[in-house]
C-alpha cells in the first residue's frame, strides 16, 4: 500500500521517553499517534501481539487519515499476502523447517517472555542447533498453530515436525536427561548437535558472569527477584506509579487479585542498570513470578487478555484453580462454557444454546473449553456437572443444553437470566 500523504514516520522508545508517553497517555505498546499540521488527529492502541509489524488496523487507520489530505493518491498495488493459501500447509512446512524448531515470543537474542528465554537457554545448554519463529510477528501463525498442535500456549518446541511440548515439559525433560534422548530418538545426529548456536563466550544468555556484573550485585539482584513470589520492578510505587507502563501492570495484578511486591528502580541506579543486564531485558517494568521473568507491560497485558497469565499463576502455585474458575464463571453476567466459539460452535449442543441465547436477545460471554484442558476438567468438578455446554448466571450454574432449551420453550429463559 502506498500512502503519499504520510510525510514522516518516527519511532519512539516509549520507556526511554516518559514525557512523550505521558503526553499522549500511552499505557501499552505499540501505540500510534497520527499528527497533521502539528496537531494530534487520532491515536491507535494496537494489539500487543502486533509487535513492530503494521497490522490491518494500523494500515486502515493510516489509509483513512490519508484520505483526509487532499494530496493523497490512495492505495496502489495488491495488499500483502503470506503467499500460502492453506494455513495448515504453511504450518506443516514451518514445523519441519529445521530438525529442532522453536516457536517463541521474540528471538533467541531478544526473547519477549521468560518462558521463551528459558527454553532458548536449555537448547543452548543441550548444545543443539535450532531454528526459531517469532509468533509475535505473525498473528495468523500464532493463532493457527494453537489449533494445529492442539497446544494453547507458547513457546512450543518441535523435533522433526513433532511437538515435544511447552516450557514446563522441556524444563522437566532437560532436568531428567530425557530431552537429549528425545533428540536422538528423532534422528538428530551428532553433526547437527555439534554445530551449536551459543553465545560467543559459551555462556547462556543472561548469565551474569558473561555480562561482567560483580558477584555482589548479582547476588543482590537475585535476592531482590526472589524476595516475593510475584515481584515487579517498576518506576515509582503501586500507589504512585511514575510511568504509564508501570501503572498498567499494577492495575493488571490488582485485577487478578494477586499479592505482589515492588521495587522502585528510580530509587537505585545500580539495580536499574544491573537488572537490564542480569535479565537480558532492556526496559521497565519487569514482572517476575517465582523468579522467572515474565516480561514487560505489553507482554503482561497480552497474557492477561489471552488467559495465559492466570494459567501461569496457577501453575506456579500463586492462585488456585478454584479461584480461577470462580473468576471465569463471574467474568460476565451470563457466561457460557462451550465447545468452540459463538461464531463457530464445535458441537451441536453448544450451537443450540448459542442460538437460544441469540434468539432471546441475551448478551453473553463465552469460553472455549477446547482451548484449556485444565479449565475443561476442573469445571466439571467445580460445578458437579460432567458435560458441556454449561451456562452460568451471576456465577451460578443454570445447566446444560436440555435445561436451557426447556427454559426457552417455557418462556422462562429471559426472566431466569435477568433476575
Automatic annotation (TrEMBL):
GO term, biological process aspect, one: intracellular iron ion homeostasis
Descriptive protein name: Thioredoxin family protein
PROSITE patterns: GLUTAREDOXIN_2 (PS51354)
Family note: Belongs to the glutaredoxin family. CGFS subfamily.
Coiled-coil regions listed: none
GO cellular component: cytosol; nucleus
GO molecular function terms attached to this record: iron-sulfur cluster binding; metal ion binding
Keyword Iron: yes
Classification via CDD domains: GRX_PICOT_like (cd03028)
Keywords of this entry: Iron, Iron-sulfur, Metal-binding
Positions of the Glutaredoxin domain: 100-163, 230-294, 334-398
